[in-house]
Amino acid sequence: MSTRWSIGPVDGVFSKDTVTVGNIDVAFQLFAEVRNVSKIIDELVATLKAEQIADDDKNDYCEVEFDKAEDKKKSLLQGESDLEAPSVGTMEIVFNTSS
């Protein structure tokens, strides 16, 4: 038996056996015994490791960018509060002009 699985070719043999489901026996049930699964699993593990490294790199980049954005936000909010809060000199002028 040779066929293509979702992630690559596999080979093995077809077998028949009696399968019991509950109280029902299914005689001569055909199924495939795949033999080179370990090679496919090794390839899949290698692919997943490479994808994880790429994801980690993207995560590191995103964390740096989030930190930059947070710092900029704090800076802008501080600048905004500086504009809203009157300085001591301004308050004196306001008091002097109202008397």
Q: Provide a count of the helices.
A: 2
**Radius of gyration of CA atoms, rounded to a whole number:** 35 Å
Q: Helices and strands: which structural class?
A: alpha+beta
Helix amount: 55-70%
Q: Name the shape in a single word.
A: elongated
Structure, explained:
- The chain is elongated, with a radius of gyration of 35 Å.
- Helix content is 60%, strand content 29%.
- The chain folds into 2 domains: 1-35, no CATH class; 37-99.
- The termini are far apart.
- The model has no long low-confidence stretch (mean pLDDT 80).
- The protein is α+β, with helices and mostly antiparallel strands.
- The protein has helices at residues 37-84, 88-98, and strands spanning 2-5, 8-21, 24-34.
- A 3-stranded antiparallel β-sheet has the order 1-2-3, with no helix packed on it.
- Strand 2 and strand 3 (24-34) form a beta hairpin.
List the helices and strands and how they pair.
Blueprint: E1 2-5, E2 8-21, E3 24-34, H1 37-84, H2 88-98
Antiparallel strand pairs: 1-2, 2-3
Features:
60% helix; 2 domains; 99 residues; alpha+beta
